[in-house]
């Protein structure tokens, strides 16, 4: 498959059994099929479910495996496994908690890229406590297999600086910033919201890719956090801690919205 990083890619939730102790593979396959039927452009699963998602997708859309870790050794293990399972690319988050320097970040991603699978770098300093600088991203883009950046800094200034320094593909990592980032040249989004409402996200990304900004603006959606997105999915599978279900009043509003 030729890797085309445009449009909406779902950061796929992992369905679990009612007791939360095991992956619900039946529901996982149903979710993958539904996502494809809804027109999603790609799927982004993690760890244990990668092989199952690759098999279910069967080449119909790209599968970008989540293989990041704060340990380079673990990230390499996960990336090699994803490659063996047939993933089309990998999504690798900046190492979290241990706050590496820019030199350390560069070395980490360089090592992962040498596995031979296309790498989407994931920069989300609000969760990792470290920001991958635009200059480091530009240096990484010179390496074979570094193909894209999932931009989750929340900073339009940083996204513009990245675009000014290099031609790396930029994907939004924030559902609520997809519209402005695509207006600045991003080619799509790795979305949480699309777990529950693929067509609502596609209604923004598809016209944006065609330059139809007016239609995309009309389709702009209310941003939802991960917990509401997972609540929509919990109608057919269980939600595991530390995520918790919404209060009943918010839950009724959310499910009513997701059906519309």
From TrEMBL:
Its EC number is 4.3.3.7. Pathway: Amino-acid biosynthesis; L-lysine biosynthesis via DAP pathway; (S)-tetrahydrodipicolinate from L-aspartate: step 3/4. One of its GO terms (molecular function) is 4-hydroxy-tetrahydrodipicolinate synthase activity. Pyruvate binds at residue 190. The keyword Amino-acid biosynthesis applies. Belongs to the DapA family. This is 4-hydroxy-tetrahydrodipicolinate synthase. It comes from Hyaloperonospora arabidopsidis (strain Emoy2).
């Amino acid at each position: 498959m030729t890797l085309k990083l445009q449009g909406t890619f779902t950061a796929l939730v992992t369905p679990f059994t009612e007791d939360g102790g095991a992956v619900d593979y039946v529901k996982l396959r149903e979710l993958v099929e539904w996502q494809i039927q809804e027109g999603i452009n790609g799927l982004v699963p993690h760890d244990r479910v990668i092989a199952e998602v690759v098999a279910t997708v069967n080449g119909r859309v790209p599968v970008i495996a989540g293989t990041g870790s704060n340990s380079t050794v673990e990230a390499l293990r996960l990336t090699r496994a994803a490659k063996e399972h047939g993933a089309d690319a990998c999504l690798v988050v900046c190492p979290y908690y241990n706050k590496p320097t820019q030199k350390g970040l560069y070395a980490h991603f360089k090592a992962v890229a040498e596995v031979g699978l296309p790498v989407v770098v994931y920069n989300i300093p609000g969760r990792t406590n470290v920001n991958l600088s635009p200059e480091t991203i530009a240096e990484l883009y010179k390496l074979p297999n570094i193909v894209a950046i999932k931009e989750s800094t929340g900073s339009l200034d940083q996204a513009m600086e990245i675009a000014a320094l290099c031609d790396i593909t930029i994907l939004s990592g924030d559902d609520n910033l997809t519209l402005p980032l695509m207006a600045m040249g991003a080619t799509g989004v790795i979305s949480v919201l699309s777990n529950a409402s693929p067509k609502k996200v596609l209604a923004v990304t598809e016209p944006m890719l065609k330059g139809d900004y007016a239609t995309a603006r009309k389709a702009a959606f209310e941003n939802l956090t991960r917990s509401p997105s997972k609540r929509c999915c919990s109608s057919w599978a269980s939600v595991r801690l530390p995520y918790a279900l919404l209060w009943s009043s918010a839950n009724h509003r959310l499910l009513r919205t997701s059906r519309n």
